Amino acid sequence: MHKLESRTVVPTKGLHGEIVVPGDKSISHRAIMFASLAQGKSRIRGLLRGEDCLSTLQAFRSLGIEAIEPADDELIIQGRGLAGLQEPTDIIDCGNSGTTMRLMCGILAAQPFFSILTGDEYLRKRPMGRVINPLSAMGAKILGRDDNSKAPLAIDGGGLKSAEYYSPIASAQVKSAVLLAGMQGDGTTTVYEPHLSRDHSERMLRYFGADLESFPGGARVNGRVELTGQEVVVPGDISSAAFFLVAGLIVPDSVLLLRNVGINPTRSGVIDILQQMGGSIELLNQRELSGEPVADLLIKSSHLCGIEIGGEMIPRAIDELPVVSVAAAFAEGVTTIRDAKELRVKETDRIAAMCECLGTLGAEIEPLNDGMRIVGGKRLTGGQVSSFGDHRIAMSLAVATLGAAAEVKILDTACTETSFPGFWELLIQVAKG
Ligand code: S3P
């Protein structure tokens, strides 16, 4: 449980400077998981040391994995192979992390021992049927609260068969859970999804030597192929960069350079959206790090215009939609976000949270069943709002305040440690820059 810290953010006149955002959360989770399942040593640099990824690291330590941190920016994991994990002697606490819980379900469902996963008050409310159902169809024995749909989850692992699964939602967590289960058993497992969700698991599993193939509409893995330890360099998280992208665009007279940001096309929807709105974002020095594309992003304040956002764009920008709604409040005209019902089952209901908070600050914003409609251009006022314990809501509200007319008190802000340690300090640094 976080302390209920609060922060008062003041509007600012221009953001300047060069910043490096912390490592990508999705890639960091996977680096810890796949290094643990691999044979031999892996060295990971650039890992996000946010609370979510520390939950994953702690989970693997409790499964018998040795991990040492010889330097500030280095984690060495001694992998034990696909069959090397040990039965944990206590329940595994996934904290606030949906990625930890859902991917661990896929891993543990195939391990020949008993384990229990739980999480904080937010995670225990989130839907787990989406991974329990396909894994059960593969023969997994998973029991959960609320008719097998919520954590705590008890897993009696082992004896899975391969599967062909058509996921009704574009979810990388569901796709990854099924692939991770399939990878540990006999035969070939295939997952199809309605739109392409982030493909970090596919890229990194291949990088570790898995026999895995991506194709339009899904991915397929052959079971019982051992992974081999690797050197992994984690790029900066585009989801964290997004707060500074939007801040740099909406605050007049700003120029920001964000170094070393992951621009994987399954994640870079926020760049496309903001560019379509008229944002000046240049991609410089494009290169590749451990199988992931990376660039430096140069941002200059811009006149933004409202657009329509939906369809395949949604999974490519799902975690950035709260801060996109902030950009929309500062844009000229109407922005509509549709097909984004998934926002309602994130760390909090992000549609309700952003509509309530931006509405309190004077924005014209209306919730839709599967998104929101924002009429931009109303000057935001000061006031008091709450993050609802959700890290991305807290940071989106901080960005909104930078361009508002008066200071805003944001309640419940310690949650930013989930994905972005050092966020508030970085914000102060660029506001002074
Ligand atoms: C993630 C996938 C997404 C995303 C989450 C991280 C991942 O969730 O919202 O923050 O690392 O696989 P869904 O799979 O539920 O869409």
Q: What can be said about this structure in brief?
A:
Helices cover 32% and strands 27% of the residues. With 433 residues, the protein is an alpha/beta fold. It folds into two domains: 6-23 and 236-432, UDP-n-acetylglucosamine1-carboxyvinyl-transferase, Chain (Alpha-beta prism); 25-233, UDP-n-acetylglucosamine1-carboxyvinyl-transferase, Chain.
Account of the 3D structure:
This protein is of the alpha/beta class. It has two domains: 6-23 and 236-432, Enolpyruvate transferase domain (UDP-n-acetylglucosamine1-carboxyvinyl-transferase, Chain), CATH 3.65.10; 25-233, Enolpyruvate transferase domain (UDP-n-acetylglucosamine1-carboxyvinyl-transferase, Chain). It is built from 14 helices and 23 strands. The protein has helices spanning 25-37, 51-62, 98-108, 129-137, 145-148, 172-183, 200-207, 238-250, 269-276, 313-317, 321-329, 350-360, 391-402, 423-432; strands spanning 6-9, 16-20, 39-45, 66-71, 74-80, 92-93, 114-118, 141-144, 150-156, 164-166, 188-192, 212-215, 218-222, 231-233, 255-262, 280-289, 292-300, 308-309, 334-337, 364-368, 371-375, 383-386, 408-411. Strands 2-15-17-16 form a four-stranded mixed beta sheet. Strands 4-5-3-14 form a four-stranded mixed beta sheet, with helices on one face. Helix 3 links the parallel strand 6 and strand 7 (114-118). The longest helix has 13 residues, at 25-37. The radius of gyration is 21 Å and the shape is globular. The two termini are 34 Å apart. The model has no long low-confidence stretch (mean pLDDT 97). The protein binds shikimate-3-phosphate (S3P). Shikimate-3-phosphate binds at residues 26, 29, 99, 171-173, 176, 197-198, 318-319, 342.
